[in-house]
């Protein structure tokens, strides 16, 4: 074998060895997806993404990123991204599809920024997301009813104070793990969905919801319901009132409700202001003190009233 051939063989082995080693030093797959998000940001005045560097093996030390040991030991994919939390960061840009492709993402909080545009479909098929908080942005578009069922692990959904429109997906209440929902201060229209049997906090205030109150609404877990500042009309159904737990806070103010307030303890325990702004609504709640209006229940049985705060 000639010296030139030996040299060529030697260098080929060196190059091959380097190529084999490269994957162990390259940024892992979750990091690449996060970098796609970084490159879509138009403005980062607080430099919160400055630590996001392609030369890192994992994104686990990046600002706002939390990892968990999930993947194959001894590889960059051993540590997978489970949380991205960057609220109040003055970020301007859009929510890219790659964020929804982070396989083990459990917690996404980009609230109080300047994100705009519509939400990508991948966000609604991220089956491991438990907390999705994108409030106080300028996100527009509709929530896709055909995809919302993919969020089967979702526990908290906060999309308040955006520019979302369309109907509240009718299958949203069917998400079994969902306990906190805030869609307030958007442009949602259509009727209030029935269900939400497992939800504890539901805030749909300051939208364009109309129609009557649903009969099959809520359940024993409900602590706070805010439907104020909508266009809900008609009477408050007895069936609706019966499904409200005794200690829940219910705000139905500034709608188009009519007729008498059902004489159920949960409704009679509410403050007057939670019914104001409904010109044709009437009932003993407005005429007499609470204990006089509900004569069936002894005063000693009334638990102290404590409001459950919204998100």
Automatic annotation (TrEMBL):
SUPFAM superfamilies xrefs: L domain-like
Subcellular location, record wording: Membrane
InterPro entries: Leu-rich_rpt, LRR_dom_sf, LRR_N_plant-typ, PRK1-6/SRF4-like
Pfam families: LRR_1 (PF00560), LRR_8 (PF13855), LRRNT_2 (PF08263)
Keywords on record: Glycoprotein, Leucine-rich repeat, Membrane, Phosphoprotein, Repeat, Signal, Transmembrane, Transmembrane helix
Sequence ranges assigned to domain Leucine-rich repeat-containing N-terminal plant-type in this UniProt record: 27-68
One cellular-component annotation, GO: membrane
Membrane topology of this protein: Single-pass type I membrane protein
The organism's place on the tree of life at top rank: Eukaryota
Family according to the record: Belongs to the RLP family.
The protein's name: Leucine-rich repeat-containing N-terminal plant-type domain-containing protein
